[in-house]
Amino acid sequence: MAKGEQWLSRLDPRFARARAVTGPWPTRLRPAGFAALVDAIVSQQVSVASAAAIGGRVEAAGFHDPARILEADDDALRACGLSRPKARYLRALAEAGIDFDALASAPTDEIVATLVTVPGIGRWTAEIYALFALGRADAFPAGDLALQEGARLLFDLPARPGEGALRKMAEPWRPWRGVAARGLWAYYAQAKNREGVR
Hints:
Layout: H1 2-11, H2 13-22, H3 34-43, H4 48-60, H5 66-71, H6 74-78, H7 84-96, H8 100-104, H9 108-115, H10 123-132, H11 145-154, H12 163-170, H13 177-192
Helix pairs in contact: 1-2, 2-13, 3-4, 3-7, 3-10, 9-10, 11-13
């Protein structure tokens, strides 16, 4: 993180300004594997607070274990606060049989390509997994709205950049786009007084 923060700060002084405002950027690393993808699916398109509440109920019900998901009926999954589509996505993930050990050593593009074959896992979810569960320094979930808003604020843009525009904007930040994302989320949290990512 420190190396990436320094590199980005030399590349663009706005990153140095963000670092001065936020302090060290949090890594937010979590253990890789099935449970991390469950948490990523739970976090899709809901607030950080809602994701934490639902995620806590999902974990308490034992649904970080694929066998428990496959044994459960829809009512048990929905009782945790999961929507019908998210319950379906967790079942698809439990049935996918992903080799998480092999995935951990794969290139980031291959990780994303593998994960998006599972119903309910799009590019954002796959990139979030690569970033937070596998610690990939260049994974960049440009579809994240808080990340887009953080870029708008830090770079004083007239409007929040869309996913494509943010990906293009982030090209010069390689190979530290994942570190840049952490900085943008930290800057967003400071500016908005709320977390943009779980």
